[in-house]
Amino acid sequence: MAKNKNLIYIAASLVVFIVLAFLYSTPVFTGKQLFQHDIVQYRGGAKELLDYRANTGDETYWSDSMFGGMPTYQMGSQFKGDIIKKIDSNLNFFPRPVNYLFLLFAGFFLLGMVAVRNWKYALLGATFFGLSTYFYIIIAAGHNGKVNTIEYFAPLLAGILLVYIRKNYIWGFIVTTLFMGLQIAANHPQMTYYLFIALGFLFLSELIRAIQKKTPMKHFLISSGIIAAACVIGVGMNSQRIMANAEYVKETVRGKQILDNDTHTSGKSGMDKESMLMWSYGRLETLNLFIPRLMGGGSQEPEAKDIMNKVQELVQENVHSQAEYDRITKGFGSVTYWGDQPGTSGPAYQGAIVCFLALLGFFFAWKKYRYWILGASILTVLLAWGSNFMPLSDFFIDFVPIYNKFRAPSSILVIVELLFPLIAIIGLYRFFTDEKLTEEYKKKILLYVGGGTLGFLLILLIFGKSLLGFHTENEKLYFPPFLLDYLVDERFKLFRIDAIKAFIYVAIAAGALFMVLKKKLNQNIALIILGVVSLFDLWTVNKRYLNDENYVDKVFAENPFQTESSDLLAEKVQANPSLGSILANVQVNKTLETIAEKDKTHYRIFNNLLGTFSETNTSYFKSSIGGYHAVKLRRYDDVINEYFQVMDSVKLPNVLNLLNAKYWVAGDPEHPQAMPNPKANGNAWFVSDLKFVNSPNQEIKSIGVIDSKKTAVIASADKEYFNNKPVQADPTAFINLTKYQPNELEFRSESKTPQLAVFSEIYYPHGWKMFVDDKEVPYIKADYLLRAVHVPAGKHNIRMIFEPEVIETGKWISLLCFGLFIILSGFGIYFIYRKRDKRKVENI
How much is the mean pLDDT over the chain? Predict the structure, then answer.
């Protein structure tokens, strides 16, 4: 009976999560969809991939849509036999973002049930975790892979705790394997990596407990073996994804550096430190976990528009010279945010009550949870500081494997957002139920932590303006007093509102706990008070960053690259500012569409209007020189830094010709101009001269000055390729593209002499195969980032296809691992029921 009752409560909790998720996302009831910046960019960049899939029913693992061409592994490619990804898709069956919110709630509920085995606390913890503000910020931005990965943090930890803490080996293995597989399938390695940093503390804690004989060493060894096997199988179920990305990442900005210059060291792996640490959380900014707008919140808070209007009014009234105006401009950043990051969409707010209860949890929770959670929380906060705590950052970048592959260290705070709700409900559970904790101890801790927290908030409220400053050093240097004083006052007002709220929320929470100790309040009522107040707190803060304005009509969400302006569109934009970018880019999109419709051959467009390397409008209509992606191929990124950042009027056109930029788009967004580039090299060409160079630096420098239609720059390491392969000029020779698919190109050539054919296709050493007259031949790199092949005299058919062997190999490993998971799980469940039946027989 008790078991059935518990199941009813669990089912009711899941219904609560569904209701909360839909209530937060009410526009989905009217058919509206989220308008997410990164998903808009994805739709443009993945258009060629999606069209190929729709037209052929097959998959291409290469696309020419962005950056001259790149693998699609990080662009939404699908893998045959990818069963674990299908499970992930089925779990995310609700409309976005209801799916994310529900799984965030439900996943932590499972973790709470494992940790305290009480649905009330699990339900409370699920709202603490599922309403963490950072998740709503990344949903609004369109970081779907990130939040999809975070969904599986809690249930994966639940599986591991089932093994280590609950000693439930079989179900622990099943849960750990399944959610490890789903974690990897969500495809955000950075988030998974951060989680395993925290799990390392759990492993060390269990090892120390075993050494201290607080738990049997045999149990620790068995548990560690089971968890290791579960993780290996879970990873193995994603072999295609992992193997393809492992091969790909070596050739990207996350892999080895090629050049030697001020920011790169040849052979060194990973990103340069400046790029890695750009989004580092400020030390003081960490308090945003507790007070959301301590440092102004986000760069564009709801109040930012009014503040900006007042700033403009003050400048017009008080500034009377161009020199003074220019000086103010130098100091200008965000009117609301004044933290250490270049900019931010919002704070990593965890909730005042959650942080307060987490502090209590570090005193009340069982030691088997307390110390590893404390250690993991401290380390992740210190790592989030990034450039603001260089000794630790330097150590991790230089000595900890893989850490230097990731950027934006501030995002590691997701670990705190997982662990604080966990330690909070564990501490709260012991506070209410564990008789080993004396009433005197509870009162003392509650007095010290509650009084200390409220006292800290009072100090900030009274002396905060002088203690915190509310301005940046740049603003202090360049802003006149009238402007600086105004901004400081406005930012302090934002802070004061949130600090007063935090004071009230903590006071209510502390008061409720104290009343329970005094036997003047029922435990269940106290839990309801904590849940409702925390829900109100987080809900209202989250609505600043993800609200009804983030939803648009389905037609705009699915077709964000509009080519016709209309009164309807103007009306929609006026009603919802999120659509402003659609209306602003209509003329550019129309120009791109016109180019693509008039010239259906294969070429690329250089669009210098919308930010070449921060837009995918161009990619939506035609192959682009630019694009928007965090994991570009290293060689292409080097060319961007060498030529496009400088915009040399002589050298840059030479590089654009190499990349077959047949059209340039210039002018302004309202009046774009499409300019044909008659000097573009085309899809392929024969060269008569070879320039051998000794270093990558010489290679990349040379491509800006050579006549690339006659000369190819070749690395000296490839000299052997030309043994017995002469190259002779023939003015009548030609090579033409006869077939184009993103993963297969065919050319027809004719020459009287042997030639070196250079293709305006990006060199990638894995998966591409070159055929001359159906015979596979080796090819080399030319001009730093292009492909080239020797072609004998005569008429020839040249074909190149992209067939990565890792895809097929990975598919069979994935299927094998999934099959192994099913078999082992089946045996385990059979063993459980057989043991249960045996006990029933013995009890008869």
Answer: 92
